[in-house]
Structure formats: C-alpha cells, structure tokens
Amino acid sequence: MPGITEDRIGTKRTTFHARTSTSTTSSYWNPSMTENETPVASVILLAGSNRCGPSRSSHGDSLIGPPGTSCKALIPLHDGRTCIDCVLDALRESHSVATVVVVGETALAEAAQQAGAQLVEQGVSVVENLFIGFSSLGWPRQCLICTCDVPLLTPASVDFIVRAGTEVNADVVYPIISREVSEAAFPRARRTYATLTDGTFTGGNLMLLNGEFVRRSKSTIQSVFAARKSPIKLCRMLGLRFILRFLMKKLSVAEVERRVCSLLNCTGRALVCPFPEVGFDVDQPEDLEAVSEFMQRPSRQPG
After folding, report:
1. Selection from 59, 69, 213 nearest residue 141 by Cα
2. Domain of 275?
C-alpha cells in the first residue's frame, strides 16, 4: 500500500509469553487438543482513533473523554487505568497470545512498552492500520484483530475466540453476541443489533484474520470499507435482493456468511460468542458509566 514501508514500520517484535491452561476443557474447545496444545495467535491492537472530546457528532460517533485526552485508548477509567491498559492486561493474561503489535500514535508508547508490546506508527485509516500491523508481524496465518476501546475484555474471552477460531479454520472468524447475552450484562448500553432468522445479534470488537487472505485482498477490503456508509455502494456490492431480505429479517447467519465470503473471496464463519464484553465498546458517556459500574462490582463479571 502506498506510504507503507519496512523502514517506517520496523522489524523488531516483542513476544508475550502465552501461559499454558490448567483449567478443565470447556465444551467449545476441541477435545482432541491437550492443555499443552493451546493455540497461540499474534495480535494487532488497533489504537489509531484520534476522535476524542466531550461532544457528539450528528452521527453519534463523536468521542468521549476529558479535556486533554488525545485518543480513545488513553481515556482514564474508574480504577486508574486507561482503555488500552485494560485491553493489554487482558491480552497479556490470556493463554493464547504471543506477539502483540499496537498500531497507534506515539503517545501510546509507554503503555505498549510497559505491557511488553511493540508500537508501530498509525496510518490515516483503519484499513491502512490493519495492513501496517500485518506487515510488521510478517503476515501471520492466524492473527487476532482487537480494538482499543473494549476495556472490559477478559482473558477468557480472548482464549475462547482464539481456540474456537482455530477449530473453525477459516480466513475470517467474526464473533457475534446475542441480544439476550449482551443486554443481560449491559442492560442500559446502546448497541447496534441485526435481526436474522437465527436470532438478534451485535458484532464483536475482535476477529481472527488469515494474513495471506488480507495480503491478497487489499483492494477488496479497501473497497468494502469505503462503501460501508454508502447505501448505494452497499446495494451494488451485496445486491438489492440480499439487502431487502435483510431488512425483512429473512436472512440466516449462514446466508450472511456465504454472501460475505463470496464478496471477499474467502472462507469465513460467524462465531456465536458467550462473552458479552467482546461486543461492548466505549463510544459515549453512558458507556463509561457502565464501565465504572462494572469495575465497582465485587464479582467483576459482566452481568
């Protein structure tokens, strides 16, 4: 991609030490895998958003944060940590994370260094940041993509996505959370839901991607991302019939999978995730209030 060079990114990598699991194998884990065969993934932590401030845009996606906070990653939370501190802690304490690359601004250098992660300079868009992260890691086959604004992320949810995603063995594995699970944990949070024949779901803030797929599909990924806010472009890509069936709530998860995979020329699966924190990101003041409330719970468990 223009503007992305090895000199800019650098080649130094810092490795997290993935811990061996000692817990009982859960139902969603592959019974054929032993505790010493826990899958390990590289991680790209996307922390390049600079949209931070006390006001909201007409689209409702303006950012929260006290004066002087330059980006979402550095928003201070109830327990004294920042958003990115919480995410890095969850990644570090999981059993399935190896190398972590943070793609963001230089203000994040201290947080990344303290967590044993590598910081690489952000680009001008989310898609460019994704490519920067993959290039710095050498385009690994299995890479966990994570955003910086999921401060309630837990090690267990990270392990679930990596382990279950490894079993699926697809180019794209995207977690979805049912409305029931999400609202049971965060009843006052405003989330975007899609109703399918299988249920009503919100999307997660993590996904597993195959580096080779990303490398060969740069132009397609850029086109899809550019079209995401244009109904006309989306209609052209997805097809009017598909969109009408979606609006009529007549599509299944499997049908959405097939259409997206056809569009991207990849293999892909939606992963129904039992961890509500995966779909809870901080966008509005009420989200910060929910995080503060959670951090004061004795159990420190969503819900």
Report:
1. 213
2. 6-295
Quickly tell me which residue has 């990849």 as its tokens: 266
Three-state DSSP state, 136: helix
In a domain, 302, yes or no: no
**Cα–Cα distance, 129 to 51 (Å, whole number):** 15
Total domains in the chain come to 1
Q: What is the 3-state secondary structure (H, E, C) of 31-56?
A: CCCCHHHCCCEEEEEEECCCCCCCCC
- DSSP letters of 233-273? HHHHHH-HHHHHHHHTT---HHHHHHHHHHHHTS-EEEEE-
Residue with tokens 């990115």: 84
pTM for this structure? 0.81
Angle of helix 240-247 relative to helix 231-238, nearest 10 degrees, comes to: 110
Q: pLDDT value at position 204? A: 94
E strand or H helix at 104: strand 97-104
Residue 135 domain flag = yes
Domain-embedded: residue 182: yes
Burial 68-105, CB ≥16 within 10 A → b, else e: ebebbbbbebeeebbbbbbbbbbbbebbbbbbbbbbbb
Assigned domain for 303 exists = no
Going by C-alpha positions, the residue among 173, 181, 160, 191 that lies closest to residue 260 is 173
Q: What is the CATH number of the domain that holds 142?
A: 3.90.550.10
pLDDT tens for 66-116 read 555 668 898 888 778 899 999 999 999 999 999 999 999 999 999 999 999
Q: Contact at 8 Å (CB) between 160 and 274?
A: yes
